[in-house]
Amino acid sequence: MRTPQPETLYFDSDESSGYPNSPLPVLLYRQVIDTRDAEKGATTFENMFKRHGWPPAWRYHLFAFDHFHSTAHEALGIFRGQARARLGGPNGRELTLDAGDVLVLPAGVGHASLEADADFCMVGAYPPGQTPEIERGDPAELAAAKARVAAVAMPEDDPVGGPLIPLWGEVS
Q: In Å, how far are 41, 59, 89, 121 from 64, measured between CA atoms?
């Protein structure tokens, strides 16, 4: 199976709201799997993420408040429903997420659900050794958040398949 090419979305640091975001792009893969059977879709995402070194951690929805993780990269596999989401923090960009899509968020990128189907659900995964802290953005803490984001190790593989270096750049 050939790995699909993702859309790449870039978000600058948002000084006014305290969201570090990342110089690395968000990767948005559209329609990676067939999700007509949601349970099978969830299991397919879990197996895919695990196979590529991103152990699945949960099945849940997307929080309805802007937040970010400065200590972990995150993969989200949407297996049921649709949501209108915002990336980049309170001043970020809106997009629609559909069942079958995968979102790969570099550490520091803000994300929130603005509106979602009642049954919207995702599989979340993180690289080994990375544990997410839920942070809400504080301009006074931005420098410390940026330092934590910069220290997060780059995983070897993309959770959808293939190496991350061509998509996220050389490891510094």
A: 23, 16, 12, 13
User: If you ran DSSP here, which 8-state letter would residue 157 be given?
Assistant: B
Q: What is the pLDDT of residues 32-48, one digit of tens each?
A: 999 999 999 999 999 99
Q: Which residues contact 160 (CB under 8 A, 6 or more apart)?
A: 3, 4, 6, 27, 29, 32, 48, 52, 102, 104
Residue 164 · residue 154 · CB < 8 Å: yes
CA–CA distances in Å: residue 4 to residues 78, 96, 125, 145: 16, 19, 19, 32
Determine how β-strand 111-116 pairs with β-strand 56-60.
Answer: unpaired
In which residue are the tokens 């000084």 written?
Answer: 15
Token couple for 80: 């049921």
Query: Of the candidates 115, 85, 89, 118, which has an alpha carbon nearest to the alpha carbon of residue 103?
Result: 85
Q: How many CB atoms lie within 10 A of CB 40?
A: 13
- Total-model pTM: 0.94
